[in-house]
């Protein structure tokens, strides 16, 4: 007896696929319409883990489906192979980062092939190779020429243990994301990309992605950009020539300002403090030291006791001439707005907390009401600021105006008086790309005493990394490249004089900001990508990856796309037309991430249950966005089901190509319903439901074989082929074996069968229509009818219309699909 043996099947088909490469995307003469499906490329930090297995299983369903639907699909893969893990492994174990990286890539590649990922293996790219990062450097110089790459000294987050600069999101609760050391600040001159230049566009164009991107991701991008509309207002300062500007989103509350606050760590605070007495200056200096160690998230937190120092200085409110004491505190940030605020404690929670802590006055200037129309309690007593809408009070000419009217009126007044104007602020900051680490793209700039910052000319790119051998890679606040003296010392491309190379390397997010374009022509040597291919394939039709990249990676890729568009290299501004974020694989609630270690090893799961069972389990576990708890799923159950499906193909006895028309009608109805539903379900990412439908079809087919129809019935063959084609999205080995038993080759390239609409007879149910509890009509309706639709049909039913007559309708009780009861007035 011929039995399902997943090991034998894997051994049989892997070499065949390797030979036939069914997923090589179509070449120039391919007339099929194109689809570009992209999985986020992995970091080669070890072998593939369960998280990869989930992501690639899901991306594969989409990609394989579009191939079967007749598209020329591009589904490439590569490696995001620069970054800290390779460098840390090199430091710990003395290995060469390049060798370590290449070894891991080889291992992951073999695992991906075993996992039957439908990748086009002719398009592989690796970002640590000079033929890739050369183009990072090329793009850098283009950004530099346009003023979109620049250097400035700045306070940076600094991990004293890793001795490296950290981006804000790498600081978690004040600690380094990687090593949990408390993060401090340090002043360094660093390279930036001017993302803020595109702030409005990055924000506004999110609206076009609604419906195609998860709304959660859109919201996260919006928040990160953080555009707010308000006004800049000038306050004169006693004893200072220049007024200072503050930024407020609530100029309507100007009459409620009772003090001012400047960021303790700002230059302005230091200057104002100089005028204070010795004791205050000492207190201020100690306070600033403390503030430097704090992170932004804590500083802005509302549930944190407020601290600060009174600077013994006063500002003058431009609308009423009131004298406002100026405090320095950490809850105002130095680099947002102007680093200074007017405090309106009655209507801003943090200001209220501060006023209560320091015993400062509070003045209500908006009469706010709660939902029941009751007046808002006194903020001093309740400790709750009145942040809602209301009508202006205690505000001279503004009294009686609503908030929005007051904002418009006071902004106009400030503009007329020359003391303020409307202004927009963003939370978004320019992208700090400098890293003082070895394993990254060297910044292609030469520093010349005569010529300044000189970009390395195109014909001298790439600036390759010097070999790691002989360099001390241990972090020390300066790039390890600085010690490669032969490499650092160079000549200026402009004047030919002695000059020094920039020793910083680029943030690896640069590598992943345009890799999707490199896949289009990965071997190209005279440009980063071929614009003709970009026209043909891009933007990406479906991007698949983890929600952990929902902010920065996507934002930076969007920025690059817009910048490249403005350089005339592409004709679109958004790289990813649709986005699917898969959930995480968890084991007892802990994520399968590289930092937590893998509790379940993918390779062991594959050995025990087979590739197909693991892939099927990933897809069947639930909606793709949800996390999977590996303790809750059953790869053994998947294996059992696959064996059951496989036996159908084994048992079919009709020849290929027979007309199914004369076959078992009931089975045909199930087959075509499955076909019709599955394509919509796949395209709506309801993969788990597709699997359930295939299971039903397998059962129906088995029933037909064992019951009346028998294994020679052409409907049985048709059903088995449909099972095989659909199953190939999830369990390619099993499906390929079935396809071969059914007398065909390359199930991946099988055409999605046409749905015979005449077989989609809708079942109906009878709905009873009552008026005042009496049956007045009956309707034949589809079982899935909506409440609203049924309500309309019932109200129009002739029997109901007659019974209602001239009476008005009080309520309609709908119990779809079986009952509607109309209650007349
Ligand atoms: C007075 C006021 C009254 C404010 C009121 C709010 C409510 P978003 O929306 O985030 O842009 N602010 C301004 N600069 C700041 C800084 N550097 N650090 C901390 N807070 C700062 O917030 C803008 C509001 O945050 C501004 O409006 C200002 O407080 C504060 F009833 O001004 B507001
Ligand atoms: Zn020079």
How would you explain this protein's 3D organization?
Its EC number is 6.1.1.4. The protein has 825 residues and is an alpha+beta fold. 36% of the residues lie in helices and 19% in strands. Strands 10, 11, 12, 13, 14, 15 and 18 form a 7-stranded mixed β-sheet that branches. A hairpin with a 6-residue loop joins β23 and β24. α19 crosses α20, α20 runs parallel beside α24 and α22 runs antiparallel to α23. About 1% of the residues have low confidence. It binds ligand ANZ and zinc ion (ZN). Ligand ANZ binds next to β11 and β15.
Largest sheet: 7 strands, mixed
| Rounded Rg | 33 Å
Strand-residue fraction?
15-25%
What ions, cofactors and ligands are bound?
A: ligand ANZ, zinc ion
Enzyme class: ligase
GO biological process, one term: leucyl-tRNA aminoacylation
Subcellular location: Cytoplasm
EC number: 6.1.1.4
Name some characteristics of this structure:
seven-stranded mixed β-sheet; binds ligand ANZ; single chain; 825 residues; binds zinc ion; alpha+beta; 34 strands; four-stranded parallel β-sheet; flat
Offer a quick outline of the entry.
With 825 residues, the protein is α+β, with helices and mostly antiparallel strands.
What's the topology here?
Elements: H1 6-20, E1 34-39, H2 50-68, E2 72-74, E3 78-79, H3 84-93, H4 97-114, E4 125-126, H5 130-145, E5 149-159, E6 164-166, E7 171-172, E8 175-176, E9 184-193, H6 199-204, H7 215-225, E10 228-237, E11 244-248, E12 259-263, H8 267-273, H9 278-292, H10 296-300, E13 308-316, E14 323-329, E15 340-343, H11 349-358, E16 366-368, H12 379-382, E17 390-392, H13 403-417, E18 420-425, E19 431-432, E20 434-435, E21 445-448, E22 452-455, H14 485-488, E23 489-491, E24 498-501, E25 505-506, H15 515-518, H16 531-537, E26 542-546, H17 552-566, E27 579-582, E28 585-587, E29 590-591, H18 602-609, H19 611-620, E30 628-629, H20 635-651, H21 665-683, H22 687-706, H23 714-727, H24 732-741, E31 765-771, E32 774-781, H25 787-796, H26 798-804, E33 809-815, E34 819-824
Parallel strand pairs: 1-2, 1-26, 3-4, 12-14, 26-27, 28-30, 31-34
Antiparallel strand pairs: 5-6, 5-9, 7-8, 9-19, 10-11, 10-13, 10-18, 12-15, 13-14, 16-17, 20-25, 21-22, 21-24, 23-24, 28-29, 31-32, 33-34
Helix pairs in contact: 1-24, 2-19, 3-4, 18-19, 19-20, 20-22, 20-23, 20-24, 21-22, 21-23, 22-23, 23-24
Bound molecules: ligand ANZ and zinc ion (ZN).
Ligand ANZ binds at residues 228, 247-250, 253, 263, 332-333, 336-337, 339, 341-342, 344, 347-348, 425.
Subcellular location: Cytoplasm
Motif ('KMSKS' region): 591-595
Domain Leucyl-tRNA synthetase editing: 222-414
């Amino acid at each position: 007896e011929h039995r399902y043996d997943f090991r034998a099947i894997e051994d049989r088909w892997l070499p065949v696929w390797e030979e036939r490469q069914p997923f090589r995307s179509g070449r120039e003469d391919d007339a099929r319409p194109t689809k570009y499906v992209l999985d986020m490329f992995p970091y080669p930090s070890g072998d593939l883990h369960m998280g990869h297995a989930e992501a690639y299983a899901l991306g594969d369903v989409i990609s394989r489906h579009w191939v079967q639907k007749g598209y020329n699909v591009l589904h490439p893969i590569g490696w995001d192979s620069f970054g800290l893990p390779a460098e840390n492994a090199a430091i710990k174990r003395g290995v060469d980062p390049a060798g370590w990286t290449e070894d891991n890539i080889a291992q992951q590649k073999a695992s991906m092939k075993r996992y039957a990922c439908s990748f086009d293996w002719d398009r592989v790219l690796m970002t640590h190779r000079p033929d890739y990062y050369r183009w990072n450097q090329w793009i850098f110089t283009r950004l530099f020429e346009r003023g979109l790459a620049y250097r400035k000294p700045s306070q940076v987050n600094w991990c004293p243990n890793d001795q490296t600069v950290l981006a804000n999101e790498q600081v978690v609760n004040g600690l380094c994301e990687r090593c949990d050391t408390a993060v401090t600040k340090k002043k360094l001159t660093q390279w930036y990309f001017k993302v803020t230049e595109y702030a409005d566009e990055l924000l506004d164009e999110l609206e076009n992605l609604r419906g195609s991107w998860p709304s959660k991701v859109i919201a996260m991008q919006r928040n990160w950009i953080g555009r707010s509309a308000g006004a800049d207002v000038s306050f004169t300062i006693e004893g200072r020539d220049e007024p200072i500007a503050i930024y407020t989103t609530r100029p309507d509350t100007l009459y409620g300002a009772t003090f001012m606050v400047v960021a303790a760590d700002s230059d302005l605070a230091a200057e104002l403090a100089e005028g204070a007495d010795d004791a205050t200056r000492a207190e201020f200096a100690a306070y600033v030291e403390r503030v430097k160690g704090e992170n932004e998230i804590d500083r802005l937190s509302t549930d944190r006791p407020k601290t600060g120092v009174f600077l013994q200085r006063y500002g003058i409110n431009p609308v009423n001439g009131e004298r406002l004491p100026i405090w320095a505190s950490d809850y105002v940030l130095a680099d947002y707005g102007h680093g200074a605020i007017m405090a309106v404690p009655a209507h801003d929670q943090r200001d209220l907390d501060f006023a209560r802590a320091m015993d400062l006055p509070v003045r209500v200037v908006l009469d706010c009401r709660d939902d029941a129309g009751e007046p808002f309690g006194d903020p001093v007593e309740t400790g709750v600021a009145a942040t809602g809408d209301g009508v202006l009070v205690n505000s001279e000419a503004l009294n009686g105006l609503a908030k929005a009217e007051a904002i418009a009126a006071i902004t106009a007044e400030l503009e007329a008086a020359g003391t303020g104007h409307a202004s927009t602020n963003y939370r978004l900051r320019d992208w700090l790309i400098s890293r003082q680490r070895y394993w990254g793209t060297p910044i292609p700039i030469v520093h010349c005493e005569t010529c300044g910052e000189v970009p390395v000319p195109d014909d001298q790119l790439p600036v390759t990394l010097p070999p790691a051998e002989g360099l001390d890679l241990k972090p020390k606040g300066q790039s390890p490249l600085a010690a490669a003296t032969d490499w650092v010392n160079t000549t200026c491309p402009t004047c030919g004089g002695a000059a020094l190379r920039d020793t910083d390397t680029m943030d690896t997010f640069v590598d992943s900001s345009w890799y999707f374009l490199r896949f289009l022509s990965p071997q190209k040597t005279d440009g980063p990508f071929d614009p003709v291919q970009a026209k043909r394939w891009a933007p990406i039709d479906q991007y698949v990856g983890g929600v952990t990249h929902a902010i920065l990676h996507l934002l930076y890729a969007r920025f690059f796309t817009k910048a490249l568009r403005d350089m005339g290299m592409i004709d679109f501004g958004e790289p990813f037309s649709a986005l699917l974020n898969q959930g995480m694989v968890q084991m007892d609630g802990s994520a399968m991430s590289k930092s937590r270690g893998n509790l379940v090893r993918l390779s062991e799961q594959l050995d025990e249950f087979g590739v197909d069972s693991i892939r099927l389990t990933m897809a069947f576990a639930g909606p793709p966005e949800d996390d999977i708890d590996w303790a809750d799923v059953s790869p053994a159950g998947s294996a059992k089901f696959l064996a059951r499906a496989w036996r159908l193909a084994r048992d079919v006895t009709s020849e290929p190509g027979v007309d199914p028309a004369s076959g078992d009608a009931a089975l045909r109805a199930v087959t075509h319903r499955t076909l019709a539903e599955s394509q919509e379900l796949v395209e709506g990412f309801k993969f788990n439901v597709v699997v359930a439908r295939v299971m039903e079809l397998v059962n129906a087919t088995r029933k037909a074989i064992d019951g009346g129809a028998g294994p020679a019935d052409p409907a049985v063959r048709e059903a088995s082929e449909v099972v095989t084609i659909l199953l190939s999205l999830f369990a390619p080995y099993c499906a390929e074996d079935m396809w071969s038993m059914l007398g065909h080759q390359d199930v991946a390239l099988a055409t999605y069968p046409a749905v015979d609409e005449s077989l989609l007879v809708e079942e109906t149910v009878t709905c009873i229509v009552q008026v005042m509890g009496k049956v007045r009509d009956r309707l034949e309706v589809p079982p899935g009818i909506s409440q609203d639709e049924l309500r309309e049909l019932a109200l129009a039913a002739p029997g109901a219309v007659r019974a209602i007559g001239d009476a008005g309708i009080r309520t309609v009780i709908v119990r779809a699909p079986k009952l509607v009861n109309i209650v007349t007035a």
